[in-house]
Amino acid sequence: MNYPKGIKQISENNYIRYDNRGMDLENDINITNQYYIDKEIAYIYKKPTPIQVTKVDYKNGMIIKEAYFKEPSTTDYNGLYNGLYIDFEAKETISKTSFPLANIHKHQILHIKHIVDNNGIAFLIVRFKTLNKDFLLLGEDFINYLKDNTRKSIPLSYFEEKGYLINPSYMPRIDYLKIIDNLQGGKYGKEKEKRN
Length: 196
What we know:
By secondary structure, the chain is of the alpha+beta class. Helices cover 30% and strands 28% of the residues. It has helices at 25-38, 106-117, 139-148, 156-162, 176-184, 190-195, and strands at 43-46, 51-57, 63-69, 77-81, 84-93, 98-100, 121-128, 133-138, 153-155, 164-165. The strands form three sheets. A six-stranded mixed β-sheet has the order 1-4-5-7-8-10, with helices on both faces. Strands 2-3 form a two-stranded antiparallel sheet. It is globular. The protein starts with 24 loop residues before the first helix and ends with a helix.
């Protein structure tokens, strides 16, 4: 279609898709966690990044003008589910073949190792955006991969072999606790029913 006054013609080649706009992994996990809280299934929260504010503009409504990171943050999320400590990092990649290890920092790897060593449940949720696939990779399998390999990435095949594909749903969107349940041999609210 040609528009008057030189407005650009839109063809199928430059059609903009809005169906997944704003639906990134972090947003999906935050909505999932709110669902878990609302249904009293689990209490898992996004950790705030610790910052030190050094300059504030009080004249224009207390706007932070200058700040710095006080310390490196650990993982993205932590909380409790049926008496289990849950701690995980969420990452996205556009690669179709691997997850680059440059996306995760050494202090985060060490943190995941500490959680695993202390019998907490640690894992990564990795979204392969181009493939539209989300995987949960347990902390033990992540740490074992790092011990046994010198590659700078984790191949998709490792996620397919050792990880757990998270099937998307309407609510909760990223039902990662379903996988934890299957690994623990339980169902939502099993412990709660026992207590009542």
